[in-house]
């Protein structure tokens, strides 16, 4: 899935923290990511698909069915992530994660079930609660066209690999918009030194949120001054009471998955998930009422723990975990990785035309480069004032 599209750092955006080797969620050992991307039909045609499926396997295909400690958080609940009730109850999940469009959750859920039955029949013979999340791509995609099938979910799972991860107009993010630019899939990671070794915190986002006026990049408000058109905000295309009207700026959603190999309790995973909005806020969003912003964090440590089955030979379970007093660097890594993952999604995305000739324009790279070529180095303004 290697991709030659530029990323945020390639445009000179100054970002905090030390990324892993691929600057991706796949830097967490064992994590694999795969896509099915569906681009079909010319703009304005009767049948237009601009959508897809993203698959995330926390322990790779061989480790599906082995629980991970996990926790969730909802910043704004105008969205869906299946399996959350069980994660909140048991503090773990054991299936792959899939992300798609809002009206394809059922098909993708069935596809995950089928894939598990094909590859792990001993697990599927019991019970499964797949994690499937969504954001709405109905501006570019004919969302009621039944484009996504269970087979597309299976294909995304089969395509999952470690290593570099493609971003932008791919997988579940294919038809998404972010800050009224073209949005989509993005990822990033941070290395967290710990004692004599280190751990990785990775983030994956399906970015489909924010208004043009909100976008901020590394502290510089690039959205309001961008020359790129924002037709998703400016034209009357959204059906309301049978009439065409303008959509609400900032409407959409964002799904974020955080993964780490650090040993964490379920409650600590939930604490990481609760920090996701801080990373999103660095990019400018204030969290629209019309946006579904739901987050999942998991830990791949403590393999073999948190298994839910009757086992009379196993009277007690045990978990190792980072002491609460030493968890702050993992919060920092989460916030930094989420911020960069959103920016990577924006930078990697390309212009896209979709249903009814709707167009979404990518964040102009030249505007970003220009903004940071002329950026005043930190502290320089204060020194100049003091010298004056």
Automatic annotation (TrEMBL):
Residues 1-10 have a biased composition (Basic and acidic residues). It comes from the Bacteria. Gene3D superfamilies: L-amino peptidase D-ALA esterase/amidase. Residues 1-24 are annotated as: Disordered. GO terms for molecular function: aminopeptidase activity. InterPro entries: ArgJ-like_dom_sf (IPR016117), Peptidase_S58_DmpA (IPR005321). Belongs to the peptidase S58 family. This is P1 family peptidase.
């Amino acid at each position: 899935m290697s991709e030659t599209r530029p990323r945020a750092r390639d445009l000179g955006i100054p970002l905090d923290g030390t990324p892993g080797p691929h600057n991706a969620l796949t830097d967490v050992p064992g994590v694999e990511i795969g896509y099915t991307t569906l681009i079909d039909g010319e703009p304005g045609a009767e049948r237009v698909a601009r959508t897809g499926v993203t698959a995330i396997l926390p322990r790779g295909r061989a480790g599906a069915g082995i629980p991970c400690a996990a926790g969730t958080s909802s910043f704004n609940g105008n969205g869906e992530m299946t399996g959350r009730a069980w994660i909140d109850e048991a503090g773990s999940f054991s299936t792959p994660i899939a992300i798609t469009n809002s009206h394809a959750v059922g098909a993708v859920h069935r596809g995950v079930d089928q894939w598990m039955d094909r590859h792990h029949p001993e697990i599927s013979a019991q019970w499964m609660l797949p994690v499937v999340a969504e954001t709405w791509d109905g501006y570019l995609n004919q969302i009621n066209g039944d484009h996504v099938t269970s087979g597309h979910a299976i294909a995304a799972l089969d395509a999952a690999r470690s290593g570099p991860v493609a971003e932008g107009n791919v997988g579940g993010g294919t038809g998404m918009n972010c800050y009224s630019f073209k949005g989509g899939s993005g990822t990033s990671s941070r290395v967290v030194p710990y004692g004599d070794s280190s751990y990785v915190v990775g983030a994956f986002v399906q970015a489909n949120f924010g208004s043009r006026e909100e976008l901020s990049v590394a502290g510089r408000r690039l959205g309001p001054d961008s020359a790129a058109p924002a037709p998703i905000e400016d034209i009357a295309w959204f059906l309301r009471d049978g009439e065409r009207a303008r959509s609400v700026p900032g409407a959409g959603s964002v799904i974020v998955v955080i993964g780490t190999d650090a040993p964490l309790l379920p409650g600590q995973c939930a604490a990481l998930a609760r920090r996701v909005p801080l990373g999103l806020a660095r990019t400018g969003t204030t969290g629209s009422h019309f946006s579904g912003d739901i987050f999942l964090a998991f830990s791949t440590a403590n393999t073999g723990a948190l298994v839910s089955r009757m086992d009379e030979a196993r009277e007690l379970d045990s978990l190792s975990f980072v002491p609460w007093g030493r968890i702050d660097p993992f919060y920092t890594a989460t916030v930094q990785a989420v911020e960069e993952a959103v920016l990577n999604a924006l930078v990697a995305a390309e212009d896209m035309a979709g249903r009814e000739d709707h167009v979404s324009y990518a964040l102009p790279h030249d505007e970003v480069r220009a903004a940071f070529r002329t950026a005043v180095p930190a502290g320089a303004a204060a020194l100049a004032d003091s010298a004056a």
